[in-house]
Each structure stands twice: as structure tokens, then as C-alpha cells.
Specification:
The protein has about 180 residues and is of the alpha+beta class. The chain has 3 helices and 13 strands, in the order E-H-E-E-H-E-E-E-E-E-H-E-E-E-E-E. The protein has a 6-stranded mixed beta sheet. A 3-stranded antiparallel beta sheet has the order 1-3-2, with helices on one face. The chain has a two-stranded antiparallel ribbon with strand order 5-6. Strand 12 and strand 13 form a beta hairpin. The protein is globular. The N and C termini lie far apart (about 35 Å).
Amino acid sequence: MTELVGSEAYTVDDLDAMPDDGRRRELIDGMLFVSPSPGWAHQEMALTLYRLLHAACPSALRVLAAPFGVRTSLHDEVEPDVLVARYADLTLANLPVAPLLAAEVASRSTRLYDRNTKRAHYERLGVPSYWLLDPTGPGRIEVLELDDGTYRPAGEATGEEPLTVDRPFPVVVTPAELLVGLQPR
């Protein structure tokens, strides 16, 4: 994770002018964060979570996977690994309001950024549910839910342990099942 800071705050126009080179570029309060392309375990977990959520998603909501921007101001655009939004809130280009769920899969280069900077950003935006997933070992998920403007733990599971969540809609998530594609068939 690289943090680049210029003499002035970056804008989404600056972001749009940057090269499309496979790196993820995000803005939080005008600060540019750049991370490398995700590895296989990260992608496996994120995209399997996407498929699980997509299958359970009610018709008024949509599930999207990165890269898809949550662009809420001139100085803020993030790309959750997986997000859930109201269909009515989406544009073809981005999501201009807080999603109902932002899910981030940790990688070596993004672990602290996801746990601290992005968590604080999502909290300020008012994202009701924030999920932190870890693809190492047997896999892990931690669910945080907004309570009076602050994230509080709402559940966690490791490996084969299933976790039932109700927000943004009911679904059962088992971390090890999100990583099954890493195993030979």
C-alpha cells in the first residue's frame, strides 16, 4: 500500500486521469492510496463472496465487485472488494452514496489500510455493515455494524464455522467455503 501526498488534495478528476495499469487507486479526503493488483487468494475469497451474496440478494438491491467506485465527493472514491447497494442509488459509472455493505478482503499490502483508514472512512460515510475478510489459513470473517455512528462487532467466524448475518439481507457465510477454489479438484 502506497500513500502519495501532494501539496494539494487529489480530486476524482485527478483519479480519472491516472493510467489504467491494474493498480487500485482510491481517494480518501483527497489523499491518494495505491495498492497492487490482488493475488489469487484475495480474488478467490472476494469473488466467491460476490457469488454467494448475489445468489441471496433481494431484487431491490445489487451486489457489485471491484473495480466499482463509491464516489461520494470530489475528494473521495473507494472501491470495496464487494459491495451491496440499493438499485435506485446506483449509476452506470459509480455509487454516489454509501453502500449498505462494504466488504474488504485483507492482503499483505492492504491489511492495516482496510482495518483503520477504510474502516474510519466507511464509518463516516454511514455504511451500515462493514465486513473484513482474511484469506490466510482457514479463512476468517469479521462483521461490524454501525451503532450510533460507530462500528461495533456483530459476529465473526473462522474456517468451517458458519456465520449467519441479517444485514443487508439474511445470508450464511463460511470463511473456508469462500476459499475452496484454492484447493485442487
